[in-house]
From TrEMBL:
Protein name, as recorded: DUF1849 family protein
């Protein structure tokens, strides 16, 4: 890239002009088995599981149910974290509603609930929990449109995508952004994870795929430019992901699809 870098607002404006329906995500239900890797001295072991259901209740919206349960072994004690998210997102990228509950050993620790709209060159967030408040952000992309944009960029041969994001974080003022590096996968992946259900390979057979390495930044990113969170995954042209790596502070999870089923989608014009 040459010349003056685009501002966050300009980047958002660019993405918000992507025509609705340019890329459509395949509704699906999937589970992922994860193992703990790169753990710190405090974390002796662990495992995780992600379950998602991406539905298309109408031509105007997506709905997502997401659950991530992780089991940690620390000093011979077992801790279980359970994050549950439900969200809906307009297919034109203009409106997003979200609710996330986090449990620790079965006890609720936090709840985040609210909505956001993109209007007049800004993203306006209305939080209902943990406290009622209104936040105005530079124009930002919501999660489903972000996935659509990654696929669109990959299909267009782009290798770097920078995006301002709002994903339901209650610290929205910290201005989350993403930098994704996209490289083609030489052959469509049939899954590299162990103990994968046989029909998964058939569901993804012959699809174009890319390896995406994505780093997330906000005002908490350190002076050396290190991200607050990193992930890598194989992204298929229908929006399904596999072969996950999730890097947190002091530990990471790796794994892939354990089950995958496609869901019906409405016939949209």
């Amino acid at each position: 890239m040459t010349g003056k870098p685009l501002s966050i607002a300009a980047l958002a404006a660019l993405w918000l002009t992507v025509p609705a329906g340019a890329v459509e995500l395949q509704p699906h239900r999937a589970s992922y088995d994860l193992k703990l890797t790169g753990q710190s001295e405090e974390v002796e072991g662990g495992e995780g599981r992600i379950a998602i259901e991406l539905a298309r209740p109408s031509c105007e919206s997506y709905s997502l149910e997401y659950r991530f349960v992780a089991r940690f072994v620390q000093a011979s004690e077992i801790t279980v974290t359970d994050q549950r998210t439900n969200s809906t997102e307009a297919t034109d990228g203009r409106r997003f509603t979200f609710e996330t509950r986090t449990l620790l050993d079965g006890n609720e620790q936090s709840e985040i609930r609210g909505s956001a709209v993109n209007e007049n060159g800004a993203t306006v967030v209305t939080m209902e929990a943990p406290a009622s408040r209104r936040i105005e952000l530079p124009a930002s992309i919501f999660p489903m449109q972000h996935t659509e944009n990654l696929v669109a960029a990959a299909l267009a041969g782009r290798s770097v995508v920078e995006t301002p994001l709002f994903d339901g974080d209650d610290e929205a003022e910290k201005l989350l952004t993403s930098t994704a590096i996209i490289t083609p996968v030489a052959k469509p992946s049939s899954g590299q994870s162990k103990d994968v259900r046989p029909d998964k390979g058939a569901a993804l057979k012959d699809m174009r795929a890319w390896r995406v390495i994505e780093s997330f930044y906000n005002k908490d990113s350190n002076e050396d430019g290190m991200p607050i969170f990193e992930t890598a995954f194989t992204l298929f042209e229908n929006g399904v992901s596999d072969d996950l790596v999730m890097k947190f502070e002091g530990y990471s999870f790796e794994g892939g699809i354990a089950s995958l089923d496609y869901l019906d989608a409405p016939a949209c014009p």
